Amino acid sequence: MNFVPFCGYSLRHNHAVTRYDEQPFLGWFHALEQRHLQHLNFSEVRRGIQALSSLYVSRRKRLNKNSALDGAGKRAAFAMFFGPLHFLLVRRIVRALDARVPPRTAVLDLGCGTGVAGAAWVLELCPAPKLVGVDRNPWLLNECKWTYQELGVRAMVKTAELNLLRIPQNTAVIAAFTINELDPSDRARFRKELLGIAKMGAPVLVIEPIARRLTSWWDEWAREWKAAGGREDEWRFAVELPDRLALMDKAAGLDHRELTGRSLWLPGNSGTV
């Protein structure tokens, strides 16, 4: 399967309702369903969605590094429900920012999870740069590799402990829903390292939930980003989800007719802010 990039497409702060009925996205989503519903039924996935939603919102302070993936239902929900939602959100943010990457610059997806954030970015670029997904969890890395293959992304995955990772020079970085999961000391180190990467010319994109209580560190980062020539944005995109994704959303008692997030963008030498 090859996902056709939207070359040169820029859409700044467009809040119009977007339909996601394009065949490549639906083909990937249907493949996700087939992959994760082989041994689970719809009710088990629905319960997984509800459990993950509770973990990441109402009980976030008690979340440990493994509890989000400690059962088949949660893993399926993570991959086939939250994964597509995050893909759609990141893609809209990338388009709105016109987030470019300099030639011959690879993209590093920091804490890649199932690979959707990095894939959503590089598939918007012509030519698409090489993508490297890094994470510590073997199940996530296997799922990430499958995502790249299904979407036709030129990419590789690497096992890495983020607290030990050092980002190579001349590497663009996307960190989507990752920085908030780090320990404060690691978060402070990455703040300095990401700012340094951008000063050397490589772009950096950080995406997190819009809820302020989940990102108490955000304001400090935003001040430094803007002082370095970057920008901070909050996003609300109205969407009409594919039928099966909308059905899971409704069955779990959620409402994602609007996708939200916040971003920090430093373009490096890739273009205008």
The ordered string of helix (H) and strand (E) elements is EHHHEHEHEEHEHEHE
Give the fraction of residues assigned to helices.
40-55%
Give a quick account of the main beta sheet: strands, pairing sense, barrel closure.
Answer: 8 strands, mixed
Strand % is 15-25%
What does the model show?
The protein has helices spanning 23-36, 42-56, 72-97, 116-122, 138-151, 184-199, 218-227, 243-251; strands spanning 18-19, 106-110, 131-135, 155-159, 171-176, 204-208, 231-240, 258-266. The protein has 273 residues and is of the alpha/beta class. The radius of gyration is 17 Å and the shape is globular. An eight-stranded mixed beta sheet has the order 1-7-8-6-5-2-3-4, with helices on both faces. It is built from eight helices and eight strands, in the order βαααβαβαββαβαβαβ. The chain starts with 17 loop residues before the first strand and ends in a 7-residue tail after the last strand. Helix 1 packs antiparallel against helix 3 (72-97) and helix 3 packs parallel to helix 4. Residues 1-15 and 59-65 have low confidence and may be disordered.
Key phrases:
273 residues; disordered N terminus; single chain; alpha/beta; eight-stranded mixed beta sheet
Task: Give the secondary structure arrangement, pairings included.
Blueprint: E1 18-19, H1 23-36, H2 42-56, H3 72-97, E2 106-110, H4 116-122, E3 131-135, H5 138-151, E4 155-159, E5 171-176, H6 184-199, E6 204-208, H7 218-227, E7 231-240, H8 243-251, E8 258-266
Parallel strand pairs: 1-7, 2-3, 2-5, 3-4, 5-6
Antiparallel strand pairs: 6-8, 7-8
Helix pairs in contact: 1-3, 2-3, 3-4
